[in-house]
Amino acid sequence: MAYMIETKNLHKSFPLGSGEELEVLKGIDLKIEKGRLTILKGRSGSGKTTLLNILSVLDTPTEGELIIDGENMNEANDSRKEKIRRYDMGFVFQAVALLPILSAYENVQFGLRLAGYEGDQDQRIKEVLRIVGLQKRMNHMPGQLSGGEQQRVAIARAVGHKPKIIFADEPTGALDTDSGIAVMKLFRELVEKEGITILMTTHDPNLMPLGDVVYEMEDGEIRNAGRKEE
Q1: Which of 28-32, 44-48, 174-178, 225-229 has the highest mean pLDDT?
Q2: Which residues contact 169 (CB under 8 A, 6 or more apart)?
Q3: DSSP conformation class of 192
Q4: pLDDT computed for residue 227 by the predictor
Q5: Intra-chain end-to-end CA distance of the chain, in Å
Q6: pTM attached to this predicted model
Q7: Coil, strand or helix: which one is 110?
Q8: CA atoms of 136 and 8, how far apart (whole Å)
Q9: Burial 131-159 (b: 16+ CB within 10 A, else e)
Q10: Is residue 111 a contact partner of residue 158, using CB atoms and an 8 Å limit?
């Protein structure tokens, strides 16, 4: 089995004003398989966003190991981590963070430029906008698109440079149920057709059946893990 991410005894603590420390992650061991949609489930305060930040090398653990595509991040300097974030990762958030003065096409193009994409940009932009079902609205501004459509543009921007993994933090949190399910089905299509690994957080139980693997977090620990085939 090939893993995109592995963690070993991952801990994260934050200092408090009293001089004590708040332990948010308490020995996390997990394995994210390549080419799968993995869901990190948990209530607010369970530690899932802190874990996502560490897995995407936006933050560092207090203790333990993080291995990304076979490379131990404990041995990587800041420059190497920046390259991994820029070239190997894509990000989708609850707040879509599209640039309001740019069209859907231009927002995806902006992402390609940041990632230093060297292929045919025009062809790739049109390809990913077709994948997300917005090929006829590529010249629309974000303010002319619905919330679900804006999130699909954000997804197109995240996958445009062909990253190895996409991190999605509550990507359906601001959407209605139908739009949220549509986004999840789009994630499934990206996994199956583009071979991308996706790790997302959510607390919505309606979305769990669409994941390949579901990890449940509670109080900074992995309480349960289940696979679709189980």
Answers
A1: 28-32
A2: 49, 52, 91, 92, 93, 94, 200, 201
A3: I
A4: 65
A5: 17
A6: 0.89
A7: helix
A8: 46
A9: bbebeebbebbbeebeebbbbbbbbbbbb
A10: yes
Residue 45: its pLDDT value, please?
Answer: 84
DSSP 14: E
**CA 87 – CA 185 distance, rounded (Å):** 25
How far apart are the C-alpha atoms of 112 and 87, rounded to whole Å? 10
What residue type is 188 in one-letter code?
R
The predicted-structure confidence for 204-229, as pLDDT tens digits, reads as follows: 888 888 889 999 999 999 987 766 54
Find tokens 């991040």 and name the residue.
73
Which residues, at least 6 apart from 121, have a Cβ–Cβ distance to it below 8 Å?
Answer: 109, 112, 113
41-78, pLDDT tens digit by residue? Answer: 888 888 988 999 999 999 999 999 999 999 999 999 99
Domains and CATH numbers, the chain: 3-227 (3.40.50.300)
H/E element holding 99? none
The proportion of the chain whose per-residue pLDDT surpasses 70, expressed as a percent, equals: 97
Helix residue ranges, H only, the chain = 48-55, 78-83, 104-114, 121-131, 147-159, 177-189
